[in-house]
Amino acid sequence: MSKKIVFIVGSLREKSFNKELSVFAADALKAKGAEVSYLDYADVPLFDQDDEYPTPAAVARVREEVNGADAIWIFSPEYNYSYPGVLKNLLDWLSRPLKEYDFGGPTALSGKTVALASIAGKSKGAGVRAKLAEIFSFEFTHNTLVDGQGTGAELAPEAFTTGVNTFSEETKQELAKQADDLLAAIAD
Ligand SMILES: Cc1cc2nc3c(=O)[nH]c(=O)nc-3n(C[C@H](O)[C@H](O)[C@H](O)COP(=O)(O)O)c2cc1C
């Protein structure tokens, strides 16, 4: 059976450079027979513990999709050397139990193999990748990180004004290697 990888893009922007970056990884995974899908989470509400139960429909849907995946791959912008709020909000919802009130029970993220990548400014997303790696190193969720903090790429300076970025061959190769390492990590 082919492996299912769910992609989570930490930017809701239609022309997101991180979404563009993810396409190279998707192509590399699909070339090896894996299935790739994008998690649509724009309708997940802001987390409020008062509204946790009954589970909002959008939350149940994203949990089911992530829970059914063999691995997730996060492509995220860096906001203020950290993760965007929309992404942290999603991860907070995903970190809560699959079954209502089953505290300590499994979550959609439990035991999941996780890969990280980011395209940003000069930092190459080192800040956001480090902080995401920290979340997935939290012993409670027992995650395996593929290639540590993953692939970091730098936006061409003109990309900020033109909205167009050229991705380097080096970045594409790094993503292809990370895709191979991800598939090796979840091989039967
Ligand atoms: C609120 C905000 C904070 C940002 N902070 C950083 C930062 O700390 N480091 C960085 O390299 N780029 C930073 N940027 C620039 C982003 O890297 C850039 O906007 C990028 O295109 C966002 O990713 P996207 O194209 O996938 O939406 C920031 C952008 C925003 C909107």
Description of the molecule:
This protein is α/β, with parallel strands linked by helices. The chain has a single domain (4-185), classed as Rossmann fold (3-Layer(aba) Sandwich). Helix content is 36%, strand content 18%. It contains 6 helices and 5 strands, in the order βαβαβαβαβαα. The chain has helices at 17-31, 57-67, 85-94, 126-136, 159-162, 169-185; strands at 4-9, 35-38, 71-75, 113-120, 144-154. Strands 2-1-3-4-5 form a 5-stranded parallel beta sheet. Helix 1 links the parallel strand 1 and strand 2 (35-38). Helix 1 crosses helix 6 (169-185). The chain is globular, with a radius of gyration of 16 Å. The mean pLDDT is 97. Flavin mononucleotide binds at residues 11, 13, 16-18, 77-81, 120-121, 123.
CATH structural architecture: 3-Layer(aba) Sandwich
Bound molecules: flavin mononucleotide
Classify the secondary structure makeup into a structural class: alpha/beta
End-to-end C-alpha gap: 10 Å
How large a portion of the residues is in β-strands, by DSSP E? 15-25%
Q: Number of helical runs?
A: 6
Q: Which word captures the global form?
A: globular
- Mean pLDDT across residues: 97
For this structure, what is the CATH class?
Answer: Alpha Beta
Count of extended strands: 5
CATH superfamily (homologous) name: Flavodoxin domain
Radius of gyration: 16 Å
- Major sheet attributes: 5 strands, parallel
Strand order of the largest sheet: 2-1-3-4-5
Q: Helical proportion?
A: 25-40%
The structural domain count equals 1
Organism: Bifidobacterium vespertilionis
Protein name: NAD(P)H-dependent oxidoreductase
GO molecular function: FMN binding; oxidoreductase activity
InterPro entries: Flavoprotein-like_sf, FMN_Rdtase-like_dom, NAD(P)H-dep_reductase
